[in-house]
Amino acid sequence: MPVIMHFSTFLKFLTLDTGDKIRHLEGYATPGGFDFYRSSRDGVLQFSAHGRDRNKVMTDIAKLAPHNAVAHNIEIFEYTANWLDKQKGARIAPSRGVWPSPGRHFSVHIEPEIGLEQSGSKKIIAVYPRREPRLNRDKAGAGIVLLQRAYKGTGGEEFGILDAYGSKAYWSPTNVSAALLDREIATIDAELERIMG
């Protein structure tokens, strides 16, 4: 059965070195686990696309996140909301979808948290919620390439990756981002095939 991961988890795999990547992928061999960042992702979407009050979102996170994840998820939400408050344009709800890997050993939930519309153009932004390892232009660009390939939209969207802790959005792939993405996808597919049998 293919592994299903969220886009932020896929971004995490882009940032890990090979040994850590293999160790984290081996975790999929046993059932269980939980989505550590779900409450902050849901909170950002509610705040951004549906106008939910900032304080109410933080209360929601405190109620819904696992006890050991509350403070971290509130922090991610606050950094993201602070960045979002500085942006221009109408806030819209991005579309959602699932992207299957070429080897069919995993799929990625494509669920960007932020949508902005400015003068008819749409910016669709996914949040990178981790403090470490750091995101760089090549890896953020690989995430943008995956959004370009997989996002179910009109085809005219501009994609970005927001590094929540860095309060910085990346807007364009580098000249190695597509090759990096393809290499990472092939590695994850091959490791999951080995691990899952």
In words, what does this structure look like?
The protein is α/β, with parallel strands linked by helices. It has one domain (3-196). The protein has seven helices and eight strands; from the N terminus they run βαααααβββββαββα. The strands form two sheets. A five-stranded mixed β-sheet has the order 2-5-6-7-8. A three-stranded mixed β-sheet has the order 1-4-3. β5 and β6 (121-128) form a beta hairpin. The protein is globular.
Short description, anyone?
The chain has one domain (3-196).
Q: How many domains comprise the coordinates?
A: 1
Broad shape:
globular
Percent of residues in helices: 40-55%
> Which strand order do you get reading across the main beta sheet?
2-5-6-7-8
Draw up the topology in text:
Layout: E1 3-6, H1 7-15, H2 18-26, H3 38-50, H4 54-64, H5 70-85, E2 90-92, E3 97-100, E4 106-110, E5 114-118, E6 121-128, H6 137-150, E7 158-163, E8 168-170, H7 177-196
Parallel strand pairs: 1-4, 6-7
Antiparallel strand pairs: 2-5, 3-4, 5-6, 7-8
Helix pairs in contact: 1-6, 2-7, 3-4, 3-5, 4-5, 6-7
